[in-house]
Design brief:
The complex is a heterodimer of chains A (about 525) and B (about 120). With about 525 residues, chain A is mostly helical. Chain A is built from 21 helices and 2 strands. Chain A is globular, with a radius of gyration of 23 Å. Chain B is mostly helical and about 120 residues long. Classes of the chains: A mainly alpha (about 525), B mainly alpha (about 120).
Chain lengths: ~525, ~120
C-alpha cells in the first residue's frame, strides 16, 4: 500500500455498514445508566425528584437488558465495535447469553434496590448521591458483563469500584470509614493484579480482544508455558479477591455490614458475582487449557471458601455480618463449578450466580425490615418478630430455605447440578463440600429464624410468653416501597424453584457459549473466523 | 533494554509490597502509589520498547515506513494512570478521614467495624 496516494479500501479496516437498530441494545444498558447517573448528579440537590428519576432510568435499564437478552437468544451472539474499527482493532462489545442473562438479573436487582432505597435512604443520603452512585455502579456492572475486551473489562471494574466506594461511605459514619479503608485497599490491590495480568497477556499476544486472544491461545501449541501459567495464576488471584474467595475474603465481612442496608444489599448481590463472571470469562473462554492445571487450586480454594463462609456465618450474632459470610459461601459453590469445568458444572455455576444475586439482595433487604421491626441487627436482641408479622416470618423462611439450597426454592437446582457434576467428574470431595456447606448454612439460617422470629422476645424473655416488640425506626417502614422489591425477588426465587427449566436452559446455553465459543468468535470476526 | 527495565519494575514491585506490608496506613498508601507506577511501567514494557521512533506516518503514505514505537501501550498506560491517580486521591482523603474519626492510622487498631470483644451468638434457646 505504501506509495499509493489516493483510494484506500476502508472496508479492510472499518465497518462501513450502518449499525442495525437492534444492535444498539448492546450498549444501551451502559449508556442509559451513564446518562441517568449524570442527570441525577446534576439534580442532586433536588431530593424529591431524585428517586423518581433514578427509578425511571432503572426501569429503562431493565427493559433494555430484557430486550438485549431476547435479541441474543433469537439471533445468537452479537458484537458491536467502537468507532467502526474492525476487530481486533476496535474495542468490541460482545454479548452472549451468559452476559445478557447476568445483565438482566443485575438490572432487576438494581431496580429493586432503587425502590427499596426510597424509604431507607434519607434526604442527606440522596443529596450525597445515592441514586447517581447506584446508576453509575450499574454502568460498571453492565459494561463488565457486556464487553469483549480485556482492558475494557478492567475499566468497567474501576467504574463500578469507584461508585461502590462512594456508596460505601455514604453517611460518613466512623464504622463506615473503617470498613471502607479495608474494602478500598484490598479491592484496589485486586484491580492492580488484574491490570498486571492484562499487561502480561498483551505482551504475549499483542491483542486485548477476548475472541482474538482465545483464537491465538489455541494456535499457540504449548498452552502450559510458564508465561501463560503466570497470567492465569494472577488472574485467579485478582478475581478471587474481587469475589472474596477464601484466603482473600477478609475485606467482605469487614465492610459489607457498615453502610445503609440497601447499599449492602446491592453489594452483596452484584459485586462479588462480577468477579465470578470475570473468572468464568477468562478461564473458560480465553484460557481454557489453563483450567487443566488450575482446576485443583480452584477446587481447593472453593472447598475452603465454602467452609469458611458457612462456619463464619455460624459464629456471628450480627445479622448483616452473618449474611456477609453467606455471600462468601455462595462464591465457593460457583468456584466449585469453575473448578469442575464441565458443561453441567459451568451451567450450575451460572444458575447459582443468578440465584445468589437475587437471594442475597433479598436477604439483606429482609434484614433491613427486621431492624426496623425489632430495633437491632443483633441476634441476642431480636425476638418475637413472628407475632409482629407472620407473613414476613414466612417470607424470611422462604429466603432461608433458598440460601441453604433446600427445595422447593431456587437454591436447590443449581446445587443439584453442581453436586451431580462433581460426582460425575470424579471430584466427589467438591460435591461433599457443597453439601456440608449447605447443611451448616441451614443451621445458621435456622438459628436466625428461631431467635429473631420464633421465640417470644429478646434474650431473657421467659419461655411461653410474648413481648410486644417495636423498633425505633418503625415509622420509616411506611408504604409499599420496602415490601414491593422483597416480594418481587421472593417471587423470582419461588418461580425458579418450582419452574427451573427456563433458567436451567438459559444457563446451559450460557455455559455452552463460553465452552464452545464458535458463535462468540464468529460474531466478532465474521463467518471466516 | 527490556531486561533492564524489567529489573527496575521488579524493584518497584518489591518496594511496593514491602510498604504495603506495613501496619501504618500512610506507608500502605505509598506502597499502593508505587504499585500503580510499577504496573504502568510493566504495561509499557510489554508493548516492547522502541527508542526515538514516534509512530508518525509521513503525509504521502498510509502506513509507516519503518517499525515505530507501539502507541497502544501508551494509550493503555494513560488510562491506567488517570484511574490509579483518582483512586489514590480518594484513598488519601479516606485515610485522612479515617484517621480523624478513629484516632489511629495503625491498621491493627482500626477495629470499629469488627470489634475485638465480639460476643459469640446465643448458644441455647
Amino acid at each position: 500500500m505504501a506509495g499509493s496516494s489516493v483510494s484506500v479500501d476502508l472496508t479492510q479496516a472499518m465497518v462501513t455498514a450502518p449499525v442495525a437498530a437492534a444492535d444498539w441494545l448492546i450498549v444501551a444498558p451502559s449508556l442509559i445508566t451513564m446518562l441517568g447517573g449524570s442527570l441525577c448528579l446534576m439534580l442532586r440537590k433536588n431530593t424529591q425528584l431524585q428517586p423518581k428519576l433514578g427509578i425511571v432510568f432503572l426501569v429503562l435499564l431493565v427493559l433494555s437488558s430484557a430486550g438485549l437478552l431476547v435479541h441474543v437468544l433469537n439471533h445468537g451472539v452479537i458484537t458491536m465495535v467502537m468507532g467502526g474499527w474492525l476487530p481486533p482493532f476496535g474495542i468490541a462489545f460482545t454479548v452472549d447469553p451468559l452476559g445478557a442473562t447476568l445483565t438482566l438479573v443485575g438490572s432487576i436487582v438494581a431496580l429493586c434496590a432503587g425502590i427499596y432505597g426510597v424509604v431507607t435512604v434519607d434526604g442527606t443520603g440522596r443529596r450525597y448521591g445515592f441514586y447517581p452512585f447506584l446508576l453509575l455502579l450499574m454502568t460498571g456492572v453492565c459494561g463488565a458483563f457486556l464487553t469483549g475486551d480485556v482492558f475494557n473489562l478492567y475499566v468497567w471494574f474501576e467504574v463500578l469500584l469507584i461508585s461502590s466506594y462512594g456508596m460505601l461511605i455514604l453517611g460518613n459514619d466512623r464504622i463506615q470509614l473503617d470498613g471502607a479503608v479495608k474494602y478500598g485497599v484490598l479491592n484496589l490491590v485486586g484491580t492492580n493484579l488484574f491490570l498486571i495480568a492484562t499487561g502480561l497477556l498483551y505482551g504475549i499476544f499483542g491483542t486485548l480482544n477476548m475472541a482474538d486472544i482465545a483464537m491465538k491461545v489455541s494456535e499457540l501449541g504449548n498452552p502450559a508455558s510458564g508465561t501463560i501459567a503466570t497470567v492465569a495464576a494472577l488472574y485467579f488471584l485478582a478475581f478471587a479477591m474481587k469475589a472474596a474467595a477464601f484466603p482473600v475474603n477478609f475485606w467482605l465481612p469487614a465492610s459489607y455490614h457498615t453502610p445503609n442496608i440497601v447499599i449492602s444489599a446491592v453489594f452483596a448481590g452484584l459485586l462479588t458475582k462480577v468477579g465470578v463472571y470475570a473468572l468464568i470469562r477468562i478461564f473458560v473462554l480465553i484460557l481454557p487449557e489453563s483450567l487443566d492445571y488450575m482446576a485443583d487450586v480452584i477446587g481447593l480454594v472453593a472447598i475452603l471458601t465454602l467452609l469458611t463462609g458457612a462456619l463464619g456465618a455460624l459464629a456471628q450474632s450480627e445479622l448483616r455480618r452473618l449474611l456477609g459470610y453467606l455471600v462468601i459461601a455462595g462464591i465457593g459453590s460457583m468456584l466449585a463449578g469453575v473448578a469442575i469445568g464441565s458443561n453441567l458444572a459451568i451451567s450450575g455455576a451460572i444458575f447459582y450466580a443468578v440465584h445468589s444475586i437475587i437471594v442475597m439482595t433479598a436477604l439483606y433487604m429482609a434484614a433491613g425490615v427486621m431492624f426496623y421491626m425489632g430495633g437491632s441487627y443483633d441476634l441476642r436482641r431480636l425476638g418475637g418478630l413472628y407475632q409482629r408479622s407472620a407473613g414476613f416470618a414466612g417470607l424470611f423462611l422462604v429466603l432461608a430455605f433458598a440460601v441453604s439450597g433446600l427445595p422447593p426454592f431456587s437454591g436447590f437446582w443449581p446445587k443439584v447440578m453442581l453436586v451431580e457434576a462433581a460426582f460425575g467428574d470424579g471430584r466427589a470431595w467438591l460435591g461433599a463440600a457443597i453439601l456440608v456447606s449447605g447443611f451448616l448454612t441451614t443451621l445458621a439460617m435456622g438459628r436466625v429464624w428461631i431467635y429473631a422470629f420464633w421465640r417470644g422476645g429478646p434474650e431473657g424473655t421467659p419461655d411461653g410468653t410474648g413481648v410486644a416488640v417495636s423498633g425505633g425506626g418503625a415509622a420509616q417502614l411506611g408504604g409499599a416501597a420496602p415490601w414491593l422489591p422483597m416480594f418481587v425477588l421472593t417471587a423470582l426465587i419461588v418461580y425458579f424453584g418450582l419452574q427451573p427449566e427456563w433458567m436451567m436452559n438459559l444457563s446451559i446455553e450460557g455455559a455452552g457459549g463460553v465452552l464452545e465459543p464458535r458463535g462468540y468468535l464468529q460474531s466478532v470476526f465474521g463467518e471466516q473466523g | 533494554m527490556e531486561t533492564g527495565v524489567a529489573v527496575l519494575i521488579g524493584l518497584f514491585f518489591s518496594v511496593a509490597v514491602y510498604l504495603m506490608l506495613s501496619k501504618q496506613l500512610v506507608r500502605l498508601l505509598l506502597g499502593i502509589a508505587i504499585l500503580g507506577n510499577a504496573v504502568n511501567m510493566l504495561i509499557f514494557t510489554n508493548g516492547r520498547l522502541t527508542r526515538e521512533v514516534p509512530p508518525l506516518i509521513p503525509p504521502h503514505l498510509y502506513t509507516p515506513e519503518i517499525a515505530t514505537a507501539n502507541p497502544l501501550p501508551q494509550a493503555l498506560v494513560l488510562t491506567a494512570i488517570v484511574i490509579s491517580f483518582s483512586f489514590f486521591a480518594f484513598l488519601l482523603v479516606l485515610a485522612f478521614r479515617a484517621y480523624q474519626e478513629l484516632g489511629t492510622d495503625e491498621v491493627n487498631k482500626m477495629r470499629v467495624a469488627e470489634p475485638d470483644n465480639d460476643q459469640s451468638p446465643p448458644q441455647g434457646y
